[in-house]
Structure formats: C-alpha cells, structure tokens
Amino acid sequence: MLNTVDHSLDIKLLCSGDETAFSRVYEQFSGQVYRLAFRFLKSKELSEEIVQETFIKLWVNRSKLEVEGNLWLYLYVLAKRLCLNELRKVSHSEELFAKLLIDTKDASNQTEEEIVAADLEKFTTSLLNKLPSQQQIVFKLSRVDGLTHQQIANQLQISSNTVKNHMTAALKTIKSNLKQSDLTYVIALAFLLEK
Questions:
Q1: What is the CATH number of domain 111-193?
Q2: What span is annotated as the signal peptide, if there is one (predicted)?
Q3: Picking from 6-20, 140-154, 181-195, which range would have the lowest pLDDT averaged per residue?
C-alpha cells in the first residue's frame, strides 16, 4: 500500500511553490486518491471532490511538508480524513445517507456485472476455441464482425454454401455445449446465436 519511491525532489520543489512539480505529483497520485475515496464513499462525484480537496490541501500546506517524508502516506492520511469527514456528514443527513446506500448498491451491482461479463467472455472464448479453425473464422466474421455469408465467402475465397455449412456446424456445436451449461450463460449468449 505504501509508496516507497523517493519523492524528496518533488517535495522540495513543491515547498518552493513549483507548479510543475505539483502537476507531476497530481498525475502520479490522483488515481490512487480517487480509488481510496471510492472505497469509502462509493460515489464517483464525492470521490472526485475528495481528490480535488486533497490536492488543494497539499498545495495550501506545501510549506509544512518534510522533504524526506513519504508523499503517498501524506496524501493517504489527508484523503482518508476527508472521506471520514464526508461520512460523518452523511450519517447526519437522511438524504445523503439514502444516496450513499443507492451508490453502494450501484457500485456493488457494477462490480457483479463486470465479474459476470468477464466470466461470460471466458466462457464464450472457450466455446469458440472448441470449434475447428475454419468454423471459428466464419463464426467470428458473421457474429462479431457482422458480415453476410456472401461477404465472408468473398473474403475467404470459398463458396457461399461452404460458409453456410460452417455456420450451421458451428451453431450446432455451440448449442449442444450450451445445453450442458449454466442457464445464465445460455441466456446471455442467445443474442450471438439468434442474429
């Protein structure tokens, strides 16, 4: 978690009011500060505000920085305090508390959706990898690239009937594999097969 890179030069330049050093520090650490804030607040908007407040405080208090100090640790403590202050405000406001609950649920749903999407992509790839190479190519050109049978035939320099036969065989193999799979994947992959 702690960033052990030596930032003494940047800190020295920051202390002297160097805006280029400040921009460099912002570029390097703003993403980490955002992720920290988002873990607490589950709100894109509030997390962006915490990033801004953290770096404003860094700039305002730059003369108090220790040249040999750990810059990330300093930013971490600042951001964490700001997050906790924000959570205190939320706990005293029904409206903000309700919004935090919604944001938390949305963030959780988004994470679940990302996991399902990643699993689905792996599942789809494994299904396609089971097909013979020519069927894989034809299937991808049809379902992923959206080409017609004639366009695929022209591109691969094969007959339209051969393309149709490859598609029929590929769909048959995929559908038989889907019958043995989890229903969630069957529903999610249906759009690929029904085009």
A1: 1.10.10.10
A2: none
A3: 181-195
